[in-house]
Design brief:
The complex is a heterodimer.
Chain A (H helix, E strand, L loop, with lengths): L22 H40 L2 H4 L3 E2 L4 E2 L2 H32 L2 H16 L2 H27 L6 H4 L8 H24 L4 H9 L4 H30 L2 H6 L17 H8 L5 H38 L1
Helix pairs in contact in A: 1-12, 3-4, 3-7, 3-9, 4-7, 7-9, 8-9, 9-12, 11-12
Chain B lengths: L25 H37 L4 H5 L14 H33 L3 H13 L4 H13 L9 H26 L2 H9 L4 H29 L3 H4 L20 H9 L4 H36 L1
Helix pairs in contact in B: 1-11, 3-6, 3-8, 3-10, 4-6, 5-6, 6-8, 7-8, 8-11, 10-11
């Protein structure tokens, strides 16, 4: 054992000779840790590779009409998925329109309005919302929401259906199992993630900036408008986009309440279908090219959600960098 | 996660409130009121669904869940009354447990790489970014992935609990990595330097100083990931198959979970099946809430120790 190290020599991770565990252990440990980190990249690459390979027969069979065609019929080997893509985008959009104002309101309540004790309680309730499993949301909505919703939607359709402009959204015949019901449930399901990410963005604004606005005689909303919102705009956009990604990938709850009838319509009270819900309903019985086509839907869904997430994370990271640079 | 907080203003005074005691225009007063009403009203959007859904599931499930229900086999003919969900409880615990055994050690190691070795180098930045992105991969895509690479094509291992665990582990991994990294970040550098000064090698510093210091936070993050995985349905539908009897062997044979039983039974028109689904829903919610509450308690204890 060397009692004294040469001055300045052993920096972090360059230990004195003779301590327990040799350099080999150190190198092995580091190697394992690096491998565990790289596993993330490996899994993402493997997902892209295996699903695309397995979906390839359907892609070559159907060509570009896989994403532009509207006829999905496994019996005739027609796999045009546009109706499902539309359904995914429409339900996610409804969810976002409902969830963003609510989530931002909750996040502002937690950060600006409520005393500490109350805001902890609210955070806890929002966490519980995230803890309820998707299948429970779906089953509850199927059992409780869907049949009264038919009447409720019909009443709305009767009143709003006569208003020009709104009639294309809310008019026409109404069904409980519809885009709208799915969108509402998705909205409830994505409130927790949008709320917590908005909250993380909001707490980065320094109290000094807020106090400055208050000292100038701003009311709370004016303070938010001049001192807070401009600072956190990109963080809030990222939060909403991550919520959008979550809504598009959500499967089980939507599959139970969307009505499973492929359609492209602006009427929100009609039954529809989404990519995820088609996959989950048809995959167990699918064989050969039908199976490939469903995996192909998974590839499209994967590509869209990855794109949304990459964009959102890039925006969020940029906002953090800007925040740190200040 | 609860550690970072802006210092609360003194409880009694509200800095943004004093202006309202002054003579300000009705318009400004009105808009401020609207904003406050919006924030408070938004709470209903979170509060009402939680209360309604939990109360409904409890009221539907309470009459169904009893010892027999929790332990008996699932009836082979779903419309028949009686039977229970024992195999689904066993399946949920085993499949989620296996997933945790895979995802938590790997996730913590990944976090160790990011925080202790990688830091801000390019590889670490890419991994960090892609781990964030990976948390957004839809769970059904994970199911398709394992189905194509492991179950029916690719390696042709067939349905098993393990296949479901792999899909859940892939979902949990990025969550564990990112939450563990946040916790490792909170460990003061002084501790690492003290360990280095004693001549410990990096692996020993990490395993006997850094990780123990961050352990409660890591456990809390991992429990939340477990809670999320325990409630998942979509990744299991194509990977574990179906069974009506207890299968405690995750490596062989088909299996089932509470979430899957709810999914199947919810879509049947039979009263007995629907009741069974409510009982399963209550059981599942209880299991998930236990994990969530334990995570909360652990993380609260952590933050009080730190203060």
């Amino acid at each position: 054992m060397t009692a004294l190290a040469p001055p300045g020599a052993p920096g972090a991770g360059e230990p004195i000779q003779g301590t327990a565990g040799g350099a080999g252990v150190d190198r092995t440990f580091r190697g394992i840790a690096v491998a565990a980190g790289l596993l993330v990249l490996a899994i993402l690459a493997l997902i892209a590779y295996t699903t695309t390979t397995k979906a390839w027969p359907a892609f070559t069979h159907q060509g570009i009409s896989f994403v532009t065609g509207r006829n999905w019929n496994p019996n005739t080997n027609s796999f045009g998925a546009l109706d499902f893509i539309y359904g995914t985008l429409l339900t996610a959009t409804i969810a976002l329109v409902l969830a963003v104002p609510a989530s931002l309101g909750i996040a502002l309540f937690i950060t600006e309005l409520a005393p500490r004790r109350l805001s902890n309680a609210v955070t806890y309730v929002v966490d519980m919302l995230a803890a309820i499993p998707s299948v429970v949301y779906g089953y509850w909505a199927l059992a409780v929401l869907v049949s009264p919703a038919t009447n409720f939607y019909s009443n709305i359709a009767n009143s709003l259906g006569r208003v020009p402009g709104l009639s294309s959204l809310f008019g026409g015949s109404a069904r409980g199992a519809s885009f709208m019901t799915a969108g509402v449930i998705l909205a409830i399901m994505i409130v927790p993630i949008i709320t917590s990410l908005s909250r993380e963005a909001l707490i980065t604004v320094s109290q000094d900036d807020k106090n400055g606005a208050i000292a100038m005689g701003a009311t709370r909303i004016e303070m938010l408008r001049v001192a807070v919102f401009p600072r956190v705009r990109s963080g809030l956009i990222a939060a909403a986009m991550l919520g959008l990604g979550r809504a598009m990938g959500e499967t089980i709850a939507v599959a139970l309440i969307i009505g499973s009838s492929p359609k492209i319509t602006s009427h929100l009270f009609r039954s529809g279908d989404t990519m995820a819900s088609v996959i989950v309903h048809q995959f167990p019985e699918a064989v050969d090219i039908h199976r490939a086509a469903l995996i192909g839907l998974g590839v499209v869904l994967f590509a869209i959600t990855i794109a949304v997430n990459v964009a959102a994370r890039a925006i969020a990271n940029r906002s953090v960098l800007v925040g740190n640079a200040r | 996660m609860t550690v970072v907080d802006t210092p609360a203003p003194p409880e009694s005074e509200d800095p943004a409130g004093w202006i309202l005691e002054q003579a300000i225009s009705p318009r400004r007063r009105f808009f401020n009121g609207v904003a406050s009403a919006w924030m408070i009203g938004s709470l209903l959007f979170a509060l009402v669904p939680v209360v309604i859904i939990v109360v409904y599931v409890v009221s539907k499930g309470a009459g169904i869940v009893n010892f027999g229900f929790l332990t008996k086999d699932i009836p082979i003919v779903t419309q028949n009354p009686g039977g229970g969900i024992g195999p689904a409880i066993v399946g949920t615990l085993i499949i989620t447990g296996m997933a945790a055994l895979m995802a938590i050690p790997l996730g913590v190691l990944g976090a160790v790489y990011l925080n202790e070795y990688g830091g801000q180098n390019r590889v670490a930045k890419v991994i960090r970014f892609m781990a964030d992105v990976m948390t957004g991969v839809p769970s059904i895509v994970m199911g398709l992935f394992i189905a194509t690479i492991w179950v029916s094509s690719g390696m042709h291992f067939g349905y098993s609990g393990l296949a479901g665990s792999l899909a859940l582990a892939a979902l949990m991994l990025p969550i564990v990595i990112r939450s563990s990294e946040e916790m490792l970040k909170l460990v003061p550098d002084d501790l690492r330097q003290a360990s280095d000064a004693l001549g410990a090698r990096r692996w020993r510093t990490v395993t006997s100083v850094v990780i123990p210091a961050a352990l409660p936070g890591i456990v809390s993050g991992a429990m939340l990931a477990v809670a999320r995985a325990a409630g998942e349905t979509a990744p299991l539908l194509f990977t574990i198959g179906v069974t009506t009897g207890i299968n405690a062997n995750p490596f062989h044979g088909t299996n089932t979970t509470l979430s899957q039983e709810i999914w199947f039974n919810a879509q049947t028109p039979f009263a007995a099946a629907k009741d069974r689904a409510w009982g399963a829903a209550l059981t599942l919610i209880l299991i998930v809430f236990v994990f969530t509450v334990v995570a909360r308690v652990v993380s609260n204890r952590f933050s009080t120790v730190r203060r």
